[in-house]
Amino acid sequence: MTRLRTVPTLLMVLMAGAMSLAALPQAPSLPCRPGSVKFGVIGDFGDGSKGEYAVAAKFAERYALCAFDMVITVGDNIYGSERAQDFVKKFETPFKTLLDKGVKFHASLGNHDDPNQRFYKPFNMGEKRYYTLTRKNVQFFALDSTYMDRKQLDWLEDELKSSKAEWKIPYFHHPLYSSGGAHGSSIDLRDVLEPVFLRHGVQVVFSGHDHFYERTKPQKGIYYFVAGSTGKLRVDNVQKSALTATSFDTGRAVMVVEIADDAMFFETVSQDGKVVDSACIPRGVDLPVSGSRERCPPRKPGMPLESFEPEASPEGVSFELRMPVSQKIDVLSKSLVELDPAGTLELEEKKDKSRPDA
Amino acid sequence: MRRPVRHALCIVAALGTAVCGKSPEPVPTPTVASESPKPAQATATPVTRDSPGGTLAAPNAAFAEFKRQLELYLAVREKVEGSVPKLSQTSDPGKIAARSALLAAAIQAARKDVRQGAIFTPAVSAEIRRILAADAAARTPAEKAHLMAEVPGQPPTVNGLYPTDSPKGPAALASFPAKLLALLPELPESVEYRFLGHSLVLRDVIANIVVDYLPNVAPARPGGGLE
After folding, report:
1. A272: buried, middle or exposed (CB in 10 Å: 19+, 13-18, 0-12)?
2. Contact check, Cβ <8 Å, B171/A112
């Protein structure tokens, strides 16, 4: 009788253990180096929905794994009415954990935002509709894409021109490139902004507006991210094309980014805590290395894709792919062929065999 | 032909008379009795469509008049702004909304007799319409529909609030096309162009009121808003 009672109890304990293991956050794919610039990216979030709260909780989990000290928002910070209680419900409560830790949010304005949000202190906009901030070798440019007048364009041109930063990162609401069925690429804005970005060595741009996650293949050498599903979500809205490197439109998502010298690592995390995209973008090389934990390839500006080869670090080059094989092929496309000519898709902890210590 | 080039040629052709030395139109008298006129200063801006900072709002009497009327509005605004608390960064969004509402009420009271056309005078309207028509002519129907997708459908009223609630979704302040902005005369920081219904409106940025509007110039039907 005692034995009969013990078996179900044991089973329950095992099941509970399995469930708690499943609930553990996936290990970070960022190197999380001391002294690097780490920041989160959220967009189209302020609707106060259960979804927003769920993904904000996962965001806090990622913070616990690898702390970042700031978050940039790509607009649509507060949907609907903008009463004091709306700011509490749609921003302060879901992101309370991070706010309490001292994480600074630096907002940009979307089409659902009252430009007077620039006076809201927790958005750290310095009372400006567009502004810039610098963290070590990274300079951010928060733009107001709902009203890109000549004054703002001239300001951007001047700021980019005088910037000494190695990484120049504009962020704003309307995507210059997007595969969204609802909105898609903002062509009018692209015609005005893209030449400025190209003139001044911009390599990475973050936007929102379309309610999903998308990373484009480099467009004229620039990586465009659409991170517009932190609250709102438009399921199955990505119309995949030659533009899309990878996308995620079946759940909400946030991004965490780490810039360490010449490498930008990032991970995109879904509302159930899964890493749906992670890669490393080396500065000056238009090729992402998916899932690199250790380091990006060294900077080799202008290097053609065909001759690209990662240089092994003393520890060897390490790759970890976290997606279903079908998705990996889609995501990595040419880069995987270049990096793994033998065709072994599972590159987990691959060592550099040419090195005696590997 | 590449789209930007085609766009530029269309606009230059459509604006030929406006930019090629046509004699200036007569300057109409100000329509707001309470706002006294000041001398206008025309700005000499190059007439190129695609170069950054370029504009088709070539210096002429109409735009000098436009600037003068805007200065009259700013003078009224500045006067009433002194009667409401100063706005600076705060963690209390209630204070921001309250200040915006106070400023709106003060401006509305000071301009209660102002009617449509106070700033978009007939001469100014003619020039702005010409620019808008030229810009629209250079866009495909799909592009025009895309630009108007977020725009609320209701017609504006002078001194009325710009609607921030859309029947199709939560509040939206429709984006304004960047390339069209490059063509229109520049505005002071506290006023901006937006579309509303089928009209082009001048919106006070802080008070969220319609300062004036130009009817029936939108490039397509307003879409009513998207999330």
Report:
1. middle
2. yes
